Amino acid sequence: MxxxxxxxxxxxxxxxxxxxxxxxxxxxxxxxxxxxxAFEQLPRLDIPGERLKRVLRxxxxxxxxxxxxxxxxxxxxxxEDVDFDSxxxxxxxxxxxxxxxxxxxxxxxxGADEDGERRAREFSRSLGVAFQIQDDLxxxxxxxxxxxxxxxSDIRQGKRSLPIIKALEMLSPEDARWLKDLLxxxxxxxxxxxxxxxxxxxxxxxxxxxxxxxxxxxxxxxLIESFPxxxxxxxxxxxxxxxRVREL
Length: 248
What we know:
The chain is mainly α.
């Protein structure tokens, strides 16, 4: 809900977002309430006391990291020069830490040793980065009805998604200046937004991003094989397979 407000998205999973139906104040309040509800559930889990404390610290810390990454993403909208390393740090905070809260939290709850936690963290990081790059690509490539949210949202909001960062590196100086100017405009003509998306695809930026995405998925898949529980490996592998081919 909070993300939809900051991105000014009117759709989520093909349905109107909460703030478009009931207003920004209600959406913020509802999002805060859901955070509280999630933390209320944790003490009810059948986890030994010390492990539960570690899970609580992990999730609380992850929420803080996600907020830090989201702020970086917002700051990038007013920054002309965002490089790949800055993008990667933002994605690790904004997206990968959310995956870590789930997978590393599960590993701690199950009694994983230090090496098991480390592998869960590495897996979460690779999967989170792959997921976010894919999200960036879908914003450029996916059909709006299939995507379930506003198309070309990153261009409209002036964000520095990875396809945009790579395009600014690969375009001619003249085209890069035009795209930067488009991203900086408060109001954007639909024809210009579409032209910007076409430039990003045609210069080869999308293919570079797709390659990076698949590399991170491959690292995640390799790490799955090191997990000790065969049924868990199967379910996690199915999840990764689902995410890799998702269109929303």
